[in-house]
# Entry
Amino acid sequence: MNPDQNKTLRTQGIALLVMLVIQYVLGMYVNQFTQFPQDASAGQLWEFSWQQPVLAAHIILGILLLIGAIVLWVRATRFHSAAWKSPAMWGFIGILIAGASGASFIPSQAAPESYLMSLSFLPAFLAYGWGLFRADRDSLRK
# Structure
């Protein structure tokens, strides 16, 4: 892997870490300050969600995180990066679980879905941090 490819993966890993922190903060805000309507249908709950600016930003950032996680994993695989392949995969899995839990939470309003969404942040965050550590360690050895 050449230095430009390593820099690309490192930059994207840092960007995903920053985005994950922002996503977590947005999620905490929504959890504390957004009151979903009671006895609403799934469609009404989704419509309500898109009308709440912070919640809409949380959803959009979640989609961008999923896309970024896929791109990082594909790049790590194509660049044959031993440091990033596994962390990129685990980060993607964490983000995928969080996104699926969030998409399930809106129509169901089930607390376990919200809890799983917030917990899934942790493996994704740790995976990308691990990727940065491994990439930096590997670059120092060369």
Q: What stands out?
A: The chain has a mean pLDDT of 95. The helical segments are 3-33, 42-51, 53-78, 85-108, 111-141. The chain has one domain: 3-32+51-141.
